[in-house]
Amino acid sequence: MSYLFALGILPVFIALFLWMLYWRKSKLEKIGDEELVASQIRGFIPGRHTFKFILLAVGLGAIIIGWANLQSADHVEKIQRKGVDVVIALDVSKSMLAKDLQPDRLTRAKQLISRIIDKMQNDRVALVLFAGRSYLQVPMTVDYSAVKMMLQNAGPESVPTQGTVIGDAVDMAMQSFSKQERKYKTLIIISDGEDHDEKAITKTREAADAGVIVHTVGIGSPQGATIFDPATKSVKLDDNGQPVISKLNEDEMKQIAAAGHGTYSLLQNTDEVANKLVKEMDGMEQKSLGAVVFTDYTSYFQYFLAVGLLALLIEWLLPGAKTKLKAKTA
Q1: 154 phi and psi, to 5 degrees?
Q2: Which helix (H) or strand (E) holds 139?
Q3: Environment class of residue 323 by beta-carbon count within 10 Å: exposed (0-12), middle (13-18) or buried (19+)?
Q4: How far is CA 303 from the centre of its chain?
Q5: What is the mean pLDDT of the chain?
Q6: Does 324 reside within a domain?
Q7: In the predicted model, what is the mean pLDDT of residues 198-208?
Q8: Cα(250)–Cα(256) distance, rounded to whole angstroms?
Q9: Within the chain, what is the greatest distance between any pair of CA atoms?
Q10: Which domain holds residue 166?
Q11: N or C, where is the chain less crowded by C-beta within 10 Å?
């Protein structure tokens, strides 16, 4: 509807046209009698100039109104939304920069999260980033675009303390869930499993006792790969100057999933893992998230555009008077 403000140019055009009529009249009066001079203009028809302007104004106004796409509500339907609360905990430690998955583990993990969000409909989602400590990057929300925007900038620099402490990520997830409910909640942990804290399985059991289903996704390969260090722009070295090899700890990730009554997935095909996780969430008992109102509208832009184009076509086809005076008869 903001396009209707463009109608404000019509009064300006009308004012300019009235000024032009006044200027024309004053010029004709200097030549001689206005009616006599006008009668000597070839093809002159009284009022035609004004009629052509009216056609232009009507055409422009109708096109602007059509552009605004006026609509009327025809059918209103209220639908109850149901879903679950989902916390996605993403490992952003430097080991996630290993390239045993192309282009690297972290990028593939982000792609997976984006695919999961794309498949969600009514679920609420929160994003937790963790390494040596955990941070709530996006609180529980249905604004999927906000989650995906914050996800783009997630990396090792997002978490000042390096390492991998999955137990801390579970704690942060539990703080994000509603304390009044013992169901409708799931946690997805995406990591290479290089856990530097032995409390992860204990924390996961506590989360499961509180009604949270915990799924895990393993990122990387058991064979492992070297880690790119952004600070040195080269392969990360240990204290002995040897390349650091980061390996996927599948046993850790499987044990966490088992403790959380969830599933473990090895990330190879992004779509397959996303479909599996969304299917698990859809199969959970879901809570009512309130009603959403859908309204069907009928648009009328085509009628205004037709009137506008017709008015402009008539104005274009209507011939104007020649400025050349008629030849005097002998």
Answers
A1: -70, 135
A2: strand 134-141
A3: exposed
A4: 32
A5: 83
A6: no
A7: 92
A8: 10
A9: 116
A10: 80-290
A11: C
- What percent of the chain stands above pLDDT 70? 83
Dihedral of CA atoms 184, 170, 194, 272 in degrees, nearest 10, equals 10
Separation CA 79–CA 295 (nearest Å): 11
By three-state DSSP, how is residue 320 classified?
A: coil
Scanning the structure block, which residue is given the tokens 């593939």? Answer: 108
Q: Which neighbouring-strand residues pair with 126?
A: 87
Helix, strand or coil, per DSSP, at residue 188: strand
Give pLDDT, residue 42.
52
C-alpha 212/C-alpha 223 separation (Å) is: 32
Same-domain pairing of 197 and 256: yes
Closest C-alpha among 215, 325, 199, 197 to residue 267: 215
Same domain, 165 and 206: yes
The two three-digit tokens of residue 18, written as one number:
């009235």
Q: What are the residues whose beta carbons fall under 8 Å from the beta carbon of 32, sequence distance 6 or more?
A: none
Q: Which residues pair with 237 in a beta bridge?
A: 243
> Which residues, including other chains, have CB under 8 Å from residue 127's CB and lie 6 or more apart?
87, 88, 90, 113, 136, 137, 138, 147, 150, 151, 154
Give the position of tokens 């722009």: 233
Report the relative pairing of strands 245-246 and 225-226 from DSSP bridges. Answer: antiparallel
Note whether residue 215 is domain-resident. yes
Q: What is the CA radius of gyration of the chain?
A: 35
What CATH number does residue 256 fall under? 3.40.50.410
- Establish if 133 belongs to a structural domain: yes
Give per-residue pLDDT as tens, 112-136. Answer: 999 999 999 888 999 999 998 999 9
Q: What is the dihedral of CA 207, 210, 213, 217, to 10 degrees?
A: -10
Q: Looking at this protein, which amino acid is placed at residue 211?
A: G
Cis ω for the linkage preceding 103 (within 30 of 0): yes
How far, in Å, CA of 132 to CA of 162, rounded? 4
In one-letter notation, the amino acid at residue 124 is R
Same domain, 157 and 226: yes
Q: Tally the domains of the chain.
A: 2
Amino acid letter at 109? A
75 domain-assigned: no
